[in-house]
Amino acid sequence: MSRDPEHLADQSVQLGFIFDMPQHSSPVPPSLLAPAVATVVYDTYWRFAVERQNIFFRRFAGDSPPFSRDQIMQQYKFTNAYRASDRVSQYLIQTVIYGRRVSIEDLFFRILLFKLFNRIETWELLDKTVGPILWSEYDFRRYDRILSNALQLGRRIYSAAYIMPSALVFGSARKHRNHLRLLEAMMSDEVPLRISALRSMRAAFELLRSYPSIGDFLAYQLVTDLNYSDLTDFTEMEFVMPGPGAKDGMRKCFASLGGLTEADMIRVVADRQAEEFERLGLTFRSLWGRSLQLIDCQNLFCEVDKYARLAHPDVKGWTGRTRIKQKYRVPREPMRFWYPPKWGLNDVIDKQGGIDCVSRI
């Protein structure tokens, strides 16, 4: 297939899709995105968002697998259309943030400790051994001993979701020790109080970004996680920082960004979501009235990058990857969903039988 940008842009009306949804579409009118040039993958972006959210609601309703007729989604793992609906984010929200009433310092410590490892099993190992996990009762030697023993037993203590820099500036050959020292430095600098006093997500991002080994992508992820709590109250439509996967997805969705930055394009996409669903004849089931936010659109670009490796193998990204690593496994237990109370969703979910029934202390 030709790699000419105009040829790719025209493919949106020539190629079929395997989603179980209306396939009629019209090319993106040039005036709507100009001077950016969309490819066939741009339409797939919206169809992917709809089908991934449909899978979410089928699981919510207790349907039996397969949750989609899409063969790629049946075989491979993709995150939810909404970041906060993913398993690890739900654990963070329900257990780490709202599972226990704690001070501002303890809350920040809990969130950052969980996210530096981003692995539920690591949190539960620490909680079981030293619990409750609180800055007021923190001891470096105890935490280090537990994590070092786990490594010696061959256990993974970090998630494979994204690579965590080793923070070697703190002087240890052991990654987890450097991350504990990094967290100690933040606590010593009173970052919990400082970040809770900030009035913009960008300012909070820049504060986290100022610490060793925390780059743009990680700082954005961390500020998003902190914002699930009551430490901050930023809108998720205020600020976005695209990661490497999202940039690769945009490379596939657009033959040219027309001079826009990746962050600009994420905002354009978020602002145009209703019009794009209508253009393609799609019905998108939002998160109980909450539209896709900037963080969600950023994540969807990352996921459509993976999806396009099989759905559109001739459309190349920056990395040239052709395979999807993680296979989909049917969950052994149904998930219960619960979101930050300030979003105002939980009462609606409760009426539909999806609220987490575990009491909160």
Task: Walk me through the structure.
The protein has 17 helices and 2 strands. The chain is mainly α and 361 residues long. It starts with a helix and ends in a 10-residue tail after the last helix. The chain has helices at residues 5-10, 30-33, 40-60, 71-75, 87-97, 104-117, 120-130, 140-152, 175-188, 191-196, 201-209, 216-226, 244-253, 262-271, 273-279, 294-311, 346-351, and strands spanning 37-38, 254-256. Among the domains are: 5-83 and 244-311, no CATH class; 99-187, no CATH class.
List the helices and strands and how they pair.
Elements: H1 5-10, H2 30-33, E1 37-38, H3 40-60, H4 71-75, H5 87-97, H6 104-117, H7 120-130, H8 140-152, H9 175-188, H10 191-196, H11 201-209, H12 216-226, H13 244-253, E2 254-256, H14 262-271, H15 273-279, H16 294-311, H17 346-351
Antiparallel strand pairs: 1-2
